[in-house]
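Structure, all two chains, one model.
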Amino acid sequence: MKTISVRDLKKYYKIYEKEPGFLGSVKSLIYRNYHVSKAVDNISFEIEEGELVGFIGPNGAGKTTTLKCLSGLLYPTSGDVSVLNYKPFERDHKFLRQIALVMGQKNQLWWDLPAIESFALNKEIYQIPSKKYASVLEELSTLLEVKDVLQVQVRKLSLGQRMKCELIAALLHTPRVLFLDEPTIGLDVVMQKKLRDFIKEYNTEYNSTILLTSHYMDDVKELCRRVIIIDHGRILYDGSLDEIVIKYAPYKLITVILHKKVERAQLQKLGKIVDYSMPKVTLSVPREESNHVAAKLLEKFPVKDLNIEEPDIEGIIRDVFAKGGK
Amino acid sequence: MFLPKEGNNMRILRIFLLHVQHIFEYRSRSLIWFFISLLNPLMLLLFWKGAILQNNGAGTTLPYITSYYLLLVVAGAFLTAHVEEDVSEIDIHEGHLSQYLIRPFSYFWFKFFEEIPYRLLQGLYGVIVCAIFFSFFGQLFVFVTDPFQLFLCVIITLLAYFLSFYFKMVLGILAFWIQDIRGLYQVIEIVMLIFAGFLVPLELLPPAVSHLSFIMPFAYMIYFPVVSFQGKLPLDTMLHVIELQCLWLVLFVAIYQIMWRKGIQKFTAAGQ
């Protein structure tokens, strides 16, 4: 079953450009120069129920705009968007009761009151039965380890505790579709890991459909089997994380530690030298030749240690952006 | 649109209570704002007292003018919603509206029930001021006595609040189209000072201006609730005021609905 379906979605903004300086201001009184910014430009994709998809791209790529269109905050310029068979922008209350949007560092919690007060408000707003509310709150606050801070004023919580409470506020009604926009931004690595574990667990337990944007590749690598790469409002890649490596990195990296110095020229015959800092050398070789080259290295050179690796995913994605998905 | 579509008492109560807790966190701020709003009517009261004593009545009486300005303190506090800046600056321009839109409850009613605790608290301060004054100078206080008229006063006051709230919401959502809207709010405030009766009782204005003020909606937000509580309006005039308030309300509801539907398509959720 398709939970999310996006066809030819466009979201354009008309942006006013002011010339610099005082003269520019005077000119703008009479004539204003506008240009159209294509935040999202004709994208299409579908997401099945229970999928956890990573939406990645540089700043201004169109990730957040897409999430906002999917959650009904933005009115699309054109195209069809369907989430749980609803048109998000109509913001039908039955639809809103089944989704949640969490935006890193933006909060729906009341700053001056304890988080538990905001949770109680959401209980009424989402009409969550008392029994369910109590059990979900107990479960989420235990999982996220914030049980002891629920009665503390939100302004006095740490960033990590606040983010966890934000997540609880967004998940109390156990949404079927969850949009997470940079959920781990600004958190330390330990907290990032905890949040990732939690998202994974939530996805498994509730079979919820999750669309996640993140700048941290660790989030995507650990959570998502499928990624959608977007840049300048267009989708550059949509597929599994494993395939992206095969498609955009048709090479592997062989790192050897040598007993004694070997000339660069000798190694160059086997592959492209990526790093030459004796006794360590890293070669980039075509994927299908990697075993053969490794065997040759072991046979003909004084190898102390040898390691074959997939190239770094961040690097591959940088390449995808640089090549514009070609 | 006169009542929440999915009227659920617990939801409304929770929104209300949350904001009551919030104003308790900032209780001194609320009191300071009340004292600021108290200054203007009290200054005018002193001015009128001087004018009446020196000019043999100046077209009015001291009990009338005293009760007018004291009731004005209560009406101003109870009935003047201050949502427009929150709606325009925080919700629309800073994008906080997203947090409302994502939840299954009407934005309008969210704001409506968020505002009520502030109005009640401010109004309560006003009632306390009036009660203190009444205990010392009861003879200078003119107040409605007939129970049916009192009932109509309550209706006029409720309609006045709805009118004021819808008007301020319309001003707030203008921010979908206008980037810097504070200048317009200043102008509206001045217009309201004159035509809602904050400065001078409207019947004491020059005839043309007085007539104009009754054509505009502002008198129905402040002036008429005040003079009706003074017992100054005959029964048929009170009923006519209610009719006109209903007409203005229907107009404001329609304007708000149309503007909201158009404006929300322009919302960019910037910064959120």
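Chain B touches chain A through 27 residues (CB under 8 Å).
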